């Protein structure tokens, strides 16, 4: 507050030092240390200044900025160095109350709607630089409940104002999709407000409902989709009246309206035989679809789409669920990519689940594919001729080979180098689901095939251009080789672009908007009449079943008009985030642009409120129909009243109780079906000695007893077995129940740490909170707390899987064996019994896990058993992927005796003609001995090769089959691994 320091003149940067320790007319020594500053100006050596704090500038303000206050309360004022203060009071007229309520509640200026009702000057006491605390009470003649503007006037032209909502009535509302629940109580007493008049107003200022509170201060009204209409609640009793405005994003809790849309009420549990496979192997699994009440999705079509690591749809299938909501699938994944894929489960045109799986392997290419099209740009409804050619790398046509062509489409953004600053994409349009095309084919004698692509599908809602990708795949004797080519599809005859002079403006600033319409495919600018829509962005957030917060964007219409393409100016009068869309109604093309307008209310994001919490302790962990739910309610409030509710998309039951010694107990008889409900507790205390009241709030989930969902299921399987041996499994379950057996090598499951099936755990989810809570208490007190923050983070589970796969690499690359993972679908007989027999793989030594999942219309269950597969002597040669012609190497042949007896063995190696393999012919293995022998291998000719290692003794023999290809050293191959 003193004269500026001449030494600081000319500097652009400064720092404020704020501290309660600074006292007027006191001296302070301030040292600026070396290093202070930025990369342009930095202090090189310490500099010390002496500062004398000046007197407080005369001021007056309110101790609390929140508008609601009890009519029995007082308004606090703090001031300093003021001998006199004038207080003037204006009151909103009754005629303007509903207008203010529904259209002008954000305004702090009541001048156009109010008149002065009181004014008085006061002499203030207090020493120089002393903070004085004073309070005023609106007790003048004619004062009563209402909306007031209080102004503190001092000095020549200084004034500070505050809008006050004066009433002793507190209003609390719970809003569900089809229900409004109102509870009224007093701010000045620990009492409910019975027999009070209640009016519910809509967003167009219309009356939606009129009624009265019951004996405990509750009013309840049901109407379909009332959440879309409601704007405010008014409660009155005699001359007393107060209001509550319902606004998106200002609820106490992060709730989610429970949708009745089938695609949003269905969940899908997936279990794979193995979630890691080789390319060209089949992905085997089962999907179980049920709604939030555990009812199966019976006999309905479900689309399963497979997305490759580049985000492209590789293939899809459509199957109907059976009579217990189950789908078994086996789909060969035709992709030359490796890494993380996703399987999307789509019902009612909505992706209801996305489940990852992994493809890992290496297969050297021996052929090359080529895709030729006449152009790279097309319009909707055209036919595209595609010429496909495949030839061997060593020369010659790949005759008579089977293959396929897949075509996928996805949204892309048009760009033009001459209009770099323009945006040609409408982000407000939802991405359309485009069809995919898949044709099986057989190449001709000269290795060619011609195919047609029909582009006559719906492109109406395309945000910009559409990118098409052709994938040509040829099966070269079990090894797939792919090539891809992309092209552009113009969904509209022209493209609309938009640009602005700024993306961040001030209120009432002239923002220059420029638009251009480019004719396609010439890309020439043409004049067109465009429809402009301006929408304001607002946000809500909701909590999912895991407690995480998700932001939901909504768009509010602000303005709409027509103008020719070109340039014009526009003023945004209110701060916030906006979206401008420009649409050519003739062609259907459109675009959008985001603009932020700064100001006091710039942020449209609703804060995450961390309120004073009430604690709710339940007497059980799970409940069922007929139980008694007992809840102990406690908080920091010693004496008060509590509204306790049972909620599920609305208030199903409620009680109002007295709080004594910080606690109360509430009991509910559950005489209805109970699959889970929220228990909510709102605790209020009165205004003591002029203090504002406080409210504690809490909500917990009472889980339903789901034991009826568990079907009887048991499994009997041997603990151990040998390779190439028949295994018998017996199961016991409910008669006629469906049972899926997943029989898989544990070594494969360990790569991704795949857990045993557990469908009951998956479906035992906490439903979203379907009731929004509103009250006046956040605007009644100045209690502040810090909000929670939702951090970005990676997919920890996916990263863990990636790390494990990096450690183990691909099991196929290292072992050159087929993945052992099978799915078998069975059904129990009339006694609930199942018997199944399978054979362990040749040469397999390890463990096999059998997951059994049983399922009927009302229940599910899963059990598992692990079988150790171990031969007396394990044959383990070095893992070889392939050899080049002319290679000679020494590999290892390891024999492991797993018994406690000596083994005198004869070793015989037989190979195909293109391989020459030699090793030691006889050996003795001590009990549990592990011995390695040299295996000399020569690759004589190119081609598929194999060798069989047979060991024998007096008790019998065992043979291990091994595949080992020999390829040309001149073959060009690419080893691509994601």
Automatic annotation (TrEMBL):
Superkingdom of source: Bacteria
Segments passing through the bilayer: none
Limits of the Alpha-2-macroglobulin bait region domain: 615-751
Any GO MF annotation of the entry: endopeptidase inhibitor activity
Domain Alpha-2-macroglobulin: 819-909
InterPro entries xrefs: A2M_N_BRD, Alpha_2_Macroglob_MG3, Macroglobln_a2, YfhM-like
Name this protein carries in UniProt: Alpha-2-macroglobulin
Native species: Campylobacter concisus
